[in-house]
Amino acid sequence: MMDNLEAKTQSPISRRTFLKAALAGAVLVSGGTVWKAIDQGVFSAGKGPAYEAWRDWDAAMDAAPHPMPLIRAAILAANAHNSQPWLFRVTDDTIDLYADISRNLGSMDPLLREMHISLGCAVENLTLAAQANGYKPEVILMSGEHEQIHVARIVLTPGEKQITELYQAIPFRHTDRSAFHSKKELPPSLYASLQEQIQEGDNVAFVWLQDEPLRTAMGEMIVRATEAIISDAEQSRDSHRWYRHDREVLHAMKDGTTLDATGSPVLTRAIGKLFPVSEATSNQYWLKSTRDTQVPTAGAFGGLLVQSRDRASLMRVGQVFQRMHLWAAANGWAIQPMNQPNERMDREQASKLTPHFREAMEKLIERPTWHQVFTFRIGYPANHAMPSPRRPAEEVLWKSITHN
Q: What is the DSSP letter of 306?
């Protein structure tokens, strides 16, 4: 499947196609409008400084082993709202990972659940890259409270190179927010293949919601949670602040969510880049996409559970999800995290609100003593997912920090 992945690059819209679409949609096409389209990246989706990290990420593999290629792989990991909440300290034989609390999601992640799952995803990419670059990595997840920023140490010793299917999938793993092929039944082997990505010692459970009425119930909960988030002024604001509409800001920050990564049709993205997007408009588009596209076309929903919500357990959830997503990318499947119910559960707990979503989740997934902490959808891809911006490895190094 890896050969097929190399062809999965969505072509940017051409000027000719844009002009035809603009005329057909009765959009005024003047010289100024075309120049604005160029300035806003209508013709260069997925290109520019914010996307360079996806290219030549493993170019140094054939040189003598060095930790920096591992960081270049780690920064391509899945992470909540593309907040990239990581900092790395590199020596010849260790890599220390720190949580960048300044990049937390506020009321969208008040318990830092998504931050630590995101950091776990980075650890998994880093581990796979270490093996591929001739290291035998030992991952040490640090104990402590969620607010303590030193979260992991990876000790590097020489070892045999292991270039795995998951490692090769790293640059092709993207969140797919577009419609999936909904008329194809998922094979029974899919659940088993995802279950195999859970390793001994992870202490993570996997639930599979494909059969009715479970799939419908989860989909309805996701839509209700989306409605609740956009009706919550603080959550709405904290979510929208990661949206990058202006191309200059996008390439300066190299983070956040973008119109290109929404899964919208190419012409919709092109027109959308020409006009400012308000918080209210963004919210309504998110709700419509969730309700009318993403939930109805999901082949199945998956959930990851832990028995303890401590920091190390959440990071192991991130490692498991990263393996699942990489395996899916390598084998022709599309995945999208859909954590709106989990975000509302955390909001309810942190703000001492009535636990509507926790009670609904516990009723749907009857696993006493286990906590459902991550939700995603999976299906047959109908489109090619676009990459998200990434800060380069050199921008996420914390050289001045000292060991605890």
A: E
Give CA–CA dist 232/225, Å, rounded: 10
Neighbours of 209 (CB within 10 A): 21
Q: Which residue's entry shows tokens 């993403």? A: 294
The amino acid occupying position 156 is: L
**In the 3-class helix/strand/coil scheme, how is 113-144 assigned residue by residue?**
HHHHHHHHHHHHHHHHHHHHCCEEEEEEECCC
> 261, 177 in Cβ contact below 8 A?
yes
Q: For 127, what's the count of Cα atoms within 13 Å in the CB-facing half-sphere?
A: 21
- CA gap 215, 94 in Å, rounded: 43
What does the CA dihedral 332, 117, 66, 173 come to, rounded to 10 degrees? 20
pTM of the model: 0.88
Out of 90-99, 181-190, 298-307, 365-374, least confident range: 181-190
Query: What angle is formed at CA 138 by the lines to CA 81 and CA 91, rounded to 5 degrees?
Result: 80
Beta pairing partners, 194: none
- Candidates 109, 153, 151, 108; CA nearest to 130 is 153
- Tokens linked to 7: 């062809």
Percentage of the chain with pLDDT > 70? 83
